[in-house]
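We emphasize that the prediction below concerns an isolated chain of 300 residues; any contacts that depend on oligomerization or on bound cofactors are therefore not represented. The input was used exactly as deposited, without trimming of termini.
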Amino acid sequence: MSLNAQPELCKSLSEAVASLDTAIVAALGGEPTLRGHPSCQTIPECGELIFIFVVSSLYKLYREAGGDDLKFLNSKIAATGSGVTEHYALVCDLRTFDQHDLRTGSPETMRRRNRCRLWFEQTVELKENDRPVGAPAWNKCVESLISQAINYISTLREFVKSLNGGMGEYVKKEWALIRTRSIPHGDFDKLVYETAGDLGMSRDVVSFRKQHYERIVVELRAQRFDVEVVNFIRKAITSRLVEEFPGVILVPDDLKALGVKPGRELGAALKEAQRIWVDGGCLLTKQAVIDALRQSGKLP
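Result of the prediction step, given as a token string:
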């Protein structure tokens, strides 16, 4: 494939993305899933870099923009026996294969390495190489991957458009419920940053998300339908941040009820309460800690 052909494929992919968003809005209302997220636009002029760029763009499109919507659609389409969702998994593996250290011999690493190598082998002849060699081979991989992406997105669109009546209405209700009980990574990170700030803490939000996000979302989806998502998640984040204070006897809500303002003042009061309780042999009552805080001037 020549470089001149790639902009046409990228244009077709962008059109497929826009068409899927249109179908999703028609089915569910609300905001589009992919929101016009750029799939792949300006492509660097280097064979292997072109491929890495396209993989990264598709990964961001699927995982960051598509999020839970695409995961939900994947689960429904996979149940029909269609193999088209293998493309989604392939992009995730290729992105890890190209952009992360895979020197370990873990079963998961071996699975990723074997899947990627098999795809390369099926797309271009590797001979005795581990990866494609030369611009023509890499361009062929780019062409194949974008074509698969167009097919994948188009299949999702047709599935969404088919959700009318009968089981289709049930799937839409299930999907709407998932949407109301989920939160994008960016919004979650913002809540972590704000909540940690209210507690007077400094926390690596990405590390916190990797540690707690999945479990918090599972807990969220176990709540009643009318749960207030942001409040629930903020409380879940707060409880986990507070757990990082060993031996806490007072929680932020206790101190707020006593008139302590969110931010550094609250964080300082929490730390002082912890010190008082630990210094007391972890035997003091909550009221005794509150009295000691008043004497220390940490309470209004």
